[in-house]
Automatic annotation (TrEMBL):
<keyword id="KW-0732">Signal</keyword>
<dbReference type="GO" id="GO:0035591">
    <property type="term" value="F:signaling adaptor activity"/>
</dbReference>
<feature type="signal peptide">
    <location>
        <begin position="1"/>
        <end position="19"/>
    </location>
</feature>
<protein>
    <submittedName>
        <fullName>Putative cpij004912 membrane glycoprotein lig-1</fullName>
    </submittedName>
</protein>
<keyword id="KW-0677">Repeat</keyword>
<keyword id="KW-0433">Leucine-rich repeat</keyword>
<dbReference type="InterPro" id="IPR032675">
    <property type="entry name" value="LRR_dom_sf"/>
</dbReference>
<dbReference type="InterPro" id="IPR052574">
    <property type="entry name" value="CDIRP"/>
</dbReference>
<dbReference type="InterPro" id="IPR001611">
    <property type="entry name" value="Leu-rich_rpt"/>
</dbReference>
Length: 310
């Protein structure tokens, strides 16, 4: 009997389910003296029963700041079923539980901010026409996955992940896309198989990656005003001339080592064709031998007399 009791206890321990323990905040609004007053109400939910009894306002942003989640799908389809603006942060921090796979069900969310949560996969099974803002910075994503299914997306932030390749064709059917940020990944290549037109795109950030070459000949972003490409390993960009008529905010410095002859043509073109501003990031660098510095930008004299075009 003693042996049977011990086996029963061991089996119960092995199959026990850890309850969700979360710190959840939600914005609240009230009226005082004719003015709308905003404050954030935060509370610790120690178990599933507390979560089950919670009443969250579906019209207000909800923020899970940290804690442990046993089953993210069960949580989303339970206590948080009506929430459309969701923020989950720091689930990868010590004392919390990482979310390895996050499901984005069609028509469910309008805004998602999932930062530093240990996410390795976004599961997007079908086309979605509701989600407009997606921020998945500081996770472990190695690819964009099925992001192309998010047809109504306006802003996409993938900073601080583990991307190595990006196919611009994934953004082809996102007519409302306003901002793309892919900074601080490990991107070595950006491909474009066909001409891609994103009429509303105004900001593109591919900085702090490992790009050695970039061809933008197939890109048509007529409203682009901000283009950050600093801190890569670029020496020139193919197909740049005449491509982005409204760009005036450009970051090209850092670890790039531009071909001097090509870079001179770029500066001449930019200064002639538009209001011009160039942002320099980081401290001045020691340029390579046989190179010179323009502000914070290193450029290298070409080893041969090849023709340089912008």
């Amino acid at each position: 009997k003693m042996l049977l009791l011990q086996l029963t206890l061991l089996l119960a321990a092995a199959t026990s389910v850890t309850a969700d323990q979360l710190n959840i905040c939600q914005d609240e609004f009230s009226t005082k003296g004719g003015f709308i007053v905003h404050h954030t109400n935060c509370r610790d939910y120690e178990d599933d029963a507390a979560l089950a009894g919670a009443q969250f306002d579906e019209d207000h942003d909800l923020w899970i700041r940290n804690g442990t989640i046993e089953d993210i799908g069960q949580l989303l389809n339970g206590s948080l079923y009506n929430i459309t603006k969701l923020k989950i942060t720091d689930m990868a921090a010590p004392g919390s539980s990482p979310i390895e796979v996050f499901p984005i069900d069609s028509g469910r969310f309008s805004t998602l901010e999932l930062t530093n949560d240990g996410i390795g996969e976004l599961r997007i099974p079908e086309a979605d026409y509701r989600l407009t803002h997606l921020n998945v910075a500081q996770n472990k994503l190695k690819e964009l996955g099925n992001v192309k299914q998010l047809k109504a997306l306006k802003s996409l932030t993938f900073d601080g992940n583990e991307l190595e390749h990006v196919a611009m064709d994934d953004f082809l059917e996102m007519p409302d896309l306003f901002s793309i940020s892919l900074a601080s990944n490990r991107i070595k290549t950006i491909s474009t198989e066909q001409q891609i037109m994103i009429v509303k795109l105004r900001a593109l950030d591919i900085s702090d990656n490992q790009l050695t070459q970039l061809d933008v000949a197939q890109w048509k972003f007529p409203q682009l005003v901000s283009f950050y490409m600093h801190d890569n390993r670029l020496n020139k960009i193919e197909g740049l001339r005449g491509k982005f008529p409204n760009v005036w905010d450009i970051a090209m410095g850092g670890t790039n080592a531009w071909d001097c002859a090509w870079f001179d043509k770029v500066l001449e073109y930019l200064k002639q064709d538009r209001k011009f501003a160039m942002k320099m990031f980081g401290d001045p660098l020691d340029c390579y031998e046989e190179s010179r510095m323009e502000g914070f930008i290193c450029c290298k004299n070409p080893a041969n007399n090849e023709k340089n075009t912008v």
